[in-house]
Every structure is written in C-alpha cells, then in structure tokens.
Amino acid sequence: MPHTARATATAGPIPRLITIGETMMMLTPEHAEPLATASKLSLHPGGAESNVASHAAHLGIPSAWVSVLGEDVLGRRIRTSIERHGVDVRWVTNNPDASTGVYFKDPGRGVLYYRRDSAASRMGPSTVASVPLEQAEIVHLSGITSALSSSCADLVEAVFERVAGSGASLSFDVNYRPSLWRAGAAAPALLSLANRADIVFVGLDEAQSLWDCVTPEDVHAILPDTGRLIIKDGDVGATEFSAGTRAFEPAIPTEVIEAVGAGDAFAAGYLSAALRGDPTAVRLRAGHERARLVLLSTSDFIAEPVPTQTSKI
C-alpha cells in the first residue's frame, strides 16, 4: 500500500456521529442550467458521508468525517471547507501518492465522475485504526465505499465488525451507484451489509433495481431484522419499519432544481432527530425538511458558513 500521511489527531470529546467515506471536489453550474452552456461554475466539496456530517453539524449534532484526500490543493480545500461547517476532521488523512477525485454536476442530466485511483479509493482498514468508532453513538457509511476498490470493501467490513456488539449503532445508506458496479454484483453485497446494519436507508427505486422490490413491504420482507428500515420514495414520502410497526410520512411538495445530495440530507435530518430522541414521525419529517433544502439548490449542501467559500472558474 502507498504511504498515507496521518492527520494529527487532537484530543477532544468523541463525536456523537462518525461518518466514513470519499469526498471529491464538485464543480456545478452556478445556476440551474446545462453544463454544456453554463458560463460560471462553483466549487464545493461533494461526498455522501461528509454531506451527512455537515448537515448534522448544522443541526447541532457533534459530528466527524473520516476519509483520505490527496496531498493537493483540492484536498486541502475540501478539508478546510468541511471543517468550517463544524465537522470534526481530526481523522482525515492525506495520501501524497494519489489525487483528490473530481466530479461535475450537469443539472437535470446527471453527474460526470473523475475519481479513478483517487486517494479515497486507497482507503482500507488502517484508515479507521485510530478512530474510536465504538465510542460514537452512530457510525454512518454507505454502499458507495464498498464499490470503490477491494481495499475500500475491506474497510467497510472492518467497520461493520468493530461496531457490531459495541455501544454504537451502525447506519448504512445503500446508495447504489450503477456507474461503479453492476446490479448483479452489487445486489448480494449490499443486501448482506444492509442485513447487518442497525439503521438502513434505501430508495425504493434502487431497491427495485437491485432486488426487484416494488413496495416498501417488499423491501421489509428481505430486510426483516433491521432495527430501523427507512425506505424513501421520492416525492411520495418515506416509510419506516421499526419495532414491529410501520410509519409513513409524506414528502414536502417541492420544485426540484437538482436531486443529487438530497438523500444525504434526508439521512442527516433523520439521524439528528434520532440522536435527539425524537419519535418516528418527527424523524421522518426532519429528513424531508433537510432534503427539501438541497432539492431547491444546485449544490449538495446549503447554508455555506463563509460566503467566500464558493469560487468561480
């Protein structure tokens, strides 16, 4: 494995929420227009798990994000930006032998990724060796990480093994990305991980692609033992199965500018409410409220703490 520089960990309270996963530099049109004709682009960090940590931090939950970045200007910018959101980045490291990944948002048309052999794709179990996962209340990661590389899949397995049996709960967002792996390979791997998690987030559309599920009940049938199973159905709403009960909360009517990142915002809103001890309906509503803010923006995140954080290119 290439040498990876360790971050200097400073002493401090263990965050209630620890997230683990890749973050790239995202370039997005400043306005809701196609990438092909946009004249101004903005730079923002973009990554499922750092998004969750940033949203949760803005909601008052002490949160940390763990990852590996390149030893480059983009990596330094990402770390600084996420830290300014109030996220604990003491366990973020830099790999001098690999670059930070980049991706472009094309509003309404998808995303273009440039992440091959990125620093984060070289993460492995050693990435979390010094992270006190067992002392957090919730550890959150997603299925994206498993698809990045074999060492990243080993990282996910190590996290699951360490959190199992500890006082922490394991939160897992299925986050299936067809651009990273085919459904034939992803379906059994993601189902196995979801069955071992305490809290699972999955979109009904991705459950259909992966496991031929048509209804929330179909998803519950293949994940019957999950402590809290949250199934998101776009502009319809979200269903939670927990403690032998089923609850549904309708989505908030919203004019969607860009959907990418809304799932991360939902997870953060839900987890923050769960850490506050809120009941099911409040948890689901908190997820919808946070997701709505992202749906109204071209960014994965909202409420930038420093106006100058966005640079035009």
UniProtKB/TrEMBL annotation:
Family recorded in the similarity comment: Belongs to the carbohydrate kinase PfkB family.
Alphabetized UniProt keyword annotations: Kinase, Transferase
SUPFAM superfamilies named in the record: Ribokinase-like
All residue ranges annotated as the Carbohydrate kinase PfkB domain in the record: 17-299
Stated name of the protein: Sugar kinase
InterPro entries from the UniProt entry: Carb_kinase_PfkB-like, PfkB_dom, Ribokinase-like
Domain of life of the source: Bacteria
GO MF terms, alphabetically ordered: kinase activity
